Amino acid sequence: LFGGRDKKRASESSKEKLIATPILALLDFSEVFEVESDTSMLGIGAVLMKEGRPFEFFSEKLSETRQKWTTYEQELYAVVHALQHWEHYLLQNEFVLHNDHQALKSLNSQKSVNRMHDRWVLYLQHFTFVSRHRAGHQNRVANALSRRNSL
Q: Could you give a GO molecular-function term held by this entry (predicted)?
């Protein structure tokens, strides 16, 4: 997709943007949490935020089996895994879930795909959240975390 120079420039730009991100926010339960998640062929990434400021980061390499999943399954896995990671913050608090996969906007109204999907949707029903689509180019931090070379 990118030549060597373009790839290096894109990588350096991503690093600079992560470094330039505002200092981590202090936890304030009176404000609404925001969760951004994303997936790539390499892994998943997510960021927990308050008022657009990062509070915590999370990323994980996808196993070979998970790398073969559909994009929908990978994106849903990223959401579920991020919520499991931050369950202690999110279970009792409303939050906004940002994701760049359109199909995840209407999780509860989708027909059953398989048992794994059913378990994940059932798990998500324990949370109170609004799901909002965010274009990939706006989902920068989670996108960068899911594509880290060190995964």
A: RNA-directed DNA polymerase activity
